[in-house]
Known about the structure:
B: alpha/beta; Rossmann fold
Amino acid sequence: MSAIDETPPAASTRERGFWAWFDAWCQRAGEYLNPILVKETRQAFKSRQFVITFTLVLLCGWVWSVGGLVLTGAYDGGSYGDRMFAGYVFILGFPLLVMVPFGAFRSLAAEWEDNTYELISISALKPHQIVSGKLGSSLLQMVLYLSALAPCLAFTFLLRGIDLPTILFLLFWMVVNSITTTLLGLCLATISRARHWQIVLSVALIAGCLWNYLLFCIGLIEEWVARGRGSRYMVDPEFWAVNGIILSAAIGYGAMFFLIARAALLFPSENRSTALRICLVVQYLLFLAWVFWAWLFISPELDPLAICGTLIGIHWWAAGTFLIGEQPELSKRARRRLPQSFLGRMFWTTFNPGSGTGYLFVLGNLASAAMVLTAAPYVLAMLEPETISYMNRRTGTYDQLVTFLWLGFCYVAIYLGIARLIILAIRRYTEVGMLFAVLVQILLVLAGTMGPLLIQAWLGVRDYSLLQISNPLWTLMEVLWFRFNGILPQLPVLVLVLPMTAFLVLLLNVRSIGRELRQLRVDAPQRVQEEEALLHPQPQPEPYRSPWDEDEAAARLTGAPDA
Amino acid sequence: MRPMIQFQNLHRYFGPTRAVNGISFEVQKGQVFGYIGPNGAGKTTSMRILSTLDIPTHGDAFVDGFSVVDDPDRVRHRLGFMPDNFGTYANVNVREYLDFFARAYNLRGRQRLAAIHRTMEFTQLDELAEKPINGLSKGMKQRLCLGRTLIHDPPVLVLDEPAAGLDPRARIELRQIIRRLAAEGKTVLISSHILTELAEMCDAVGIIERGRLLAVGTVDEIQKGHPGRNAVRVRVLGEVQPLLAWLQDHITIHQHRIDGEQLIFTHDGDRESEADLLRDLVLAGFRIAEFGSERRSLEDVFMQVTKGQVQ
């Protein structure tokens, strides 16, 4: 009998003591573990790849423990825990930052190659369970690698030269980096099931992982160990703020990779978009919150707001590029869960899947960002009047920032809107997917930027001209940075033409967007309602009984006279 | 009564190719339905749609009344699918493989152990429980895959070419297993190229070609729907030539062949006319030692219905 079917009775485990009880408890808990995690763990322990990597990590740890001591100890007789730690970071970083993320990618990609994905996709496993099972298996491997080198890392603390907070801090970031890269690997594995794309993606991922490994290890060791700046950083509040920003970015992007992978595995009639849209909004709000914190407490100037606006613009433009490629039709299954109330429809309709709702969703969020960034210096000036004159003196005018933000909004509205119209036109003749929408957007932006540049180069004009009106990069840079030399001469035309064009493009999109916004919730089919009634029967209301009747019955029982 | 499997005007297009083109039929509870057609006819595509691995371009399919498009999760609980090229995991043995799928179908504790035990017993894989999957023969892997299909005890089974690549013994065993499943009341939709086997175990068959369903019903119904020439074999004591001459004078014979004392010929008549013919032959003085009507097989009907077209 294998371990699977051995379930010792509870009474005998109690008799055999704590460990037997613990073993039985673990077995019972194991029933509720993710099936993918259980299977992957069984496979990993028998796989040659894991055994070799684990043995190599142990071996390298031992070799460095002996060899490193000999080498570093030869130079000075003082503390050399920091140098030893640097070596262990390199040893541990390779499995954590290269092997584990790539292993997760291969594990999911192999499900398609080996024709096993179809078997698990028609089981009761949900896509989020599949992705989290793969992630869980990677986390388990990380724990094993960390535990393999844990004695060595503890050893570096004893050798002095590095303190415990620094060791824990660096290990924490290594694990965070590993988890985020693993989620990226899982996300990439779901992008395409074609063999040639899988090969391209795997090469790109392994190159990226190696680059990340070298950058992370060299960067950390250079700053924290070689220069010994770690302890100085730790007392600086700004350092912790930056760490908070990076951590929230890692969590935000990790969640996004997870949700993309989940969406790619969902059945086509499922709602693949709403969860991702919520994630995008959370990322955006987190970023905005951090920027405002830094702006208010560190540097209340206009430049950070312009940079923040640029990053938010890129965020929503990139998101919009994918969202406008969604299918405009909602499946009956997705329509069963649409919001019904007035407020629900008002606030949640743009979270519904669809290319039109996606376009509105992006524009709404971008407009909110532009409004907040426009209002922020104004509000600050009202609270602290001297601040705005300080800002104007330091970094140019408030008007230029506002123009920059709203013209940027217009560009996003124009490019996404035109791309959406092109996709809708093509979809009348043939079916195109989301990646095609991305391609259309890239080609449009390339045509809008490279075309005028080439024409101007051919004409021999070197300065900014109105020919560049379709070039968002140059135009926005001129709007923002021309302030040092006065007002951009073409600005009145830009301010007139770009908003009008954006409005026109929006108008052209309105009809098709309206169709998507009018989607209403539909009832579940009769068969589903029948089964739901069987599975979850509604409690029957108790028949009304008068308290007088109860009194009468009690009186009859006790033989007392009626009241 | 609600059919367990229902295809409703199902279409599936891949670019210009119409892999499935307006298929509609039903399979009732406890029926074994044979799905036959040449390669590229659309069998696998429609089976994949039924198993929620693909979605139709138009139309819908239902399992126990649930749409495969709108309620795939409910369909999956009721359906076990055995694809023609199934995958297995490396570094996993038979028991672990079944254990994984039992967990994947939310079977917990004793329920899971019972399901694994029942499945291994049913597919006779008990003795191979600890054997790595990669070391199994094709027939054993096929059994394991069938076991995986049965692990959550689904009322509907979709088996795509389950006998492909099996040796004769494994085929017979698989046929026996399917018969036992049918006896247990499972609804089975099975595709196969081995038509004689299907004819023996199926309650009904559907013939598909170029994405269109050409005929559906019991083998007899299809035969009646596509009348053809039956062959009759007569063995007489004495010369065969006078018999042939008599037959040519009295009925229309299309083809004939003399094989020793036997005359084999085809004619347009039905079973009743064959009975009359036997009576007339005896009355005419022929000493008939053997008279047999050779019914058309499913293969004959298949060849008659289909044109061997692929897309």
